[in-house]
Amino acid sequence: MELKNPGGNIFSNLQVVITMFCSINNKSSTRKIVEHRSLKILLNSAIGLHTLFGSALKARQNNAKVHEVHANSAENNEKKTKTTTTTPPKSYVPTEMITKILLSLPVKSLIRFKCVSKPWLSLISDPMFAESHFQLTTHTRKIWFISNDLHQTTSIDFEEQLDLEIASIKRFGFLHPQANSLIQIISSCRGFIFFYYSSSFFIMNPCTKVHKQIPLAPDEFETNLELGYIYYLYGFGYDQLRDDYLVVSLSCTLAEEDISRLEYFSLKDNKWKEIKNTHFPYTLDKIDPRVGSLYNDVIHWLALHSGSLMEVNIDLSERKLFEISFPNDVEHKCDHCELWIFGEFLSLWATGCENKRIEIWVMKEYKDHLSWIKTIVLSIHILPPHKFSPICSTKNGDIIGTDGENILLRYNDKGESIEGSSYSCFPDSAVSSESLSIVYTDSASL
Q: Which residues have C-beta within 8 Å of that of residue 346, sequence separation ≥ 6?
C-alpha cells in the first residue's frame, strides 16, 4: 500500500480514521481501546516510515543532480547547465504490517474500515483474510435472544453470569412485522444465525446485522412449515473444503413408500442444488420442522428406524447421508430428547420419567456408536407443561438451559442447580417469553 506525501490520500485517510474514532463517545470499552491503539500504531508507523524515507530521498536528490555543461558558441564561451532529477521511489507502509494490525481488530471495526481506501476494501473483503481473522480472533461465545414480534435482539456472555440487565437491545432493520409470522428453525454457525421467517430463510451476522435472504427451494411449497403430511429437516453449516456456507433441506412424506428430497443452498454459488437418489427410510415422532446440530462439519438429526432411535447425518464436504445408531440402553423417543454440543463432544440430552431429570449422554469417539456414555443426570424441579432444555455449556462444564418459560438456569458438572435468571429482557410488554427465540453462537465472522 503506497504512502504519499502528507497531503496524500492514504496519509490523510489514516488521520481521518484516527480523529473519527478518537472522537467517538467517551464510553470505555476494551474493544475501543484496542481499536484506537491499533490505529495509532498504524499511523505512527506510517509517520515514522514517511520521515525516514523523506530524509533519504532528500539526500539522494541532492547527490543525483547532474550538471552538464555544453559550449553553445565559441564567441561568448557561455555555459549552460542542464539539471536532471531522478524520479524518487515511492515510500509505503508494508502490506504485511497493515494486514497484521487489521487482523487484530473486531468485526465491527473492519466493516467500517472498508471505506478508508480501495486497497483496504479489497484486503478486508478477501475470503482468505476473513478466514485468517476467524482463526486468529478470540471466539466470543454468547446466547442471543430474538423477539418474534418486535424484531429486537440482545445477547449475554454467559461464561461469568446470567445477567441480562446490562444487555443492550438492538432492532432488526430488514424485517418488517408480518401477521402470524414467527422466527423458526433457528441455529448458528461460526457466529452467523440461520432462521426462517415469513416464507424465507435468512442468514444474519447478529453483531453487524449484515444479512442475506434465501428463497425456499424451487420445488418447496411456501407454506412448507405448516404442512402436516411432510417431514422437514433443516441444517446450516460451513464446508471448509470449498469455503462455502450451506443451508440443507431434507423433506420426506409420511407415505409408506420412500419419497424424499435432499437439497442444499450454496452461498458461494447462490443457488439450490439437489442431491439425487437420496434414500431416507426413517420416520420422526414430531411433524414440526427440526433443525440439525452442527458438529465436525456434519449436520446431525434424530430419527426413528424400525422403532429404534437413530442419528441421521449429512457430511457437508462429501454431500451424502450416513447414520449412527445408539446403544441398546439409550431408549428414548424423539420428542423427549435432542442432539446438542456439550463441550467438545456430540451429545444427547433426554428427559426422564415425569420430567424430573435430564440425562446427558456424550459420544466419546466420534462415529463410534459404542462410545456413547451417560455423564450427568440433572435433577429438574419444573412444573409441567414447561420443561428444561439445554442450550450450551461453559468452558468449565456448567450447563446453561431454559425452563421453557422465561428463566435461564445453570447446572454444574455434578447436576446441581447453581444459578437462575429471568430473560424477560425486552421492556415492551408485547414481547412475551413464548415469542422469543434463543440461540447459542460461537464468535462472529466477516
A: 293, 295, 296, 300, 339, 362, 363, 366
Distance CA 187, CA 342 (A): 16
DSSP of 312-357, one letter per residue?
EEEETTTTEEEEEE--TT----GGGEEEEEETTEEEEEEE-GGG-E
C-alpha cell at 279: 434414500
Q: Return d(Cα 237, Cα 189) in angstroms, integer.
A: 6
**Grid coordinates 438429526 are at which residue?**
301
Task: For residue range 126-151, list pLDDT tens digits in order.
Answer: 888 988 888 887 777 888 888 776 57
* Among 382, 284, 386, CA closest to 335: 284
- Global model pTM greater than 0.90: no
Condensed to tens digits (0 to 9), the pLDDT of residues 188-234 reads: 999 899 998 888 899 988 877 788 999 888 766 444 444 445 778 99
Question: Cα angle at 189 between 185 and 193, to 5 degrees?
Answer: 50
Do residues 290 and 274 make contact, with C-beta atoms less than 8 angstroms apart?
Answer: no
Q: How far is Cα 199 from Cα 204, in angstroms, rounded to an integer? A: 16
β-sheet bridge partners, residue 237: 246
The single residue listed with the C-alpha cell 457430511 is: 315
Tell the burial category of 307 from Cβ atoms under 10 Å away from its Cβ (0-12, 13-18, 19+): exposed
Q: Nine-digit cell at 362?
A: 456424550
